[in-house]
Task: inverse folding
């Protein structure tokens, strides 16, 4: 089933691609700009486990932070703080952060290339990661810069011929592991135990009329299931 709603403390693959596979990231400068915006908008509410920014798409593996961090983040943009019960659900807050990331990148891309109009194909894709094996396979794939194979259509041009993936391979390199470096906002999934993220998996989607209610029920269920 397609993942619709996002829940804190769980791991998701976040991705998107360009319209007609227009090469968004063939330029290293565009890759760096997107990475900076990714850090700015996603790190306050998630840990980045791995990423691949290449050619016509981006893929980001994230572990969402706690609900309290989401609430604090949301209130930081309010003139007056509101109660946790009034704060929108995690899906909404994360989606707004993704919208800010994508819009800022598209504006920069369009300005740099003197173009206008749509660049990314949709809002963004999201997939719940359900076990440790799936997570590890994704990390390996992303660090190799392997693109998703299912897009149709391509714009053939000179830019597309030269592309190099920008990935999180540095986070899993031998040097990083040997020196035990610490980088805020990035999380080496091989160094920490993320098993709790898979103990009680959240639903893929919730009824829109009962979104908040079921969100609270799920939180209670997960707390009771914890050792």
Result:
């Amino acid at each position: 089933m397609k993942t619709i709603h996002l829940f804190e403390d769980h791991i998701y693959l976040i991705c998107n691609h360009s319209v007609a596979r227009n090469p968004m990231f063939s330029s290293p400068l565009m890759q760096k700009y997107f990475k900076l915006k990714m850090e700015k908008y996603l790190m306050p509410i998630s840990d980045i486990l791995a990423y691949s920014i290449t050619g016509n798409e981006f893929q980001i593996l994230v572990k969402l932070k706690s609900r309290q961090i989401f609430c604090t983040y949301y209130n930081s943009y309010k003139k007056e703080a509101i109660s946790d019960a009034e704060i929108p659900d995690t899906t909404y807050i994360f989606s707004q952060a993704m919208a800010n990331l994508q819009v800022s990148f598209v504006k920069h891309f369009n300005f740099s290339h003197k173009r206008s109009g749509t660049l990314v194909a949709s809002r963004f894709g999201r997939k719940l990661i359900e076990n440790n094996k799936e997570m590890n396979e994704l990390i390996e794939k992303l660090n190799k810069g392997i693109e998703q194979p299912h897009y149709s259509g391509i714009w053939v041009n000179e830019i597309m011929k030269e592309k190099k993936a920008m990935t999180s391979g540095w986070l899993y390199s031998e040097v990083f592991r040997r020196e035990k470096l610490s980088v805020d906002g990035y999380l080496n999934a091989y160094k920490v135990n993320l098993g709790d993220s898979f103990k009680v998996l959240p639903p893929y989607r919730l009824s829109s009329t009962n979104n908040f209610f079921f969100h609270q029920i799920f939180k209670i269920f997960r707390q009771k299931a914890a050792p």
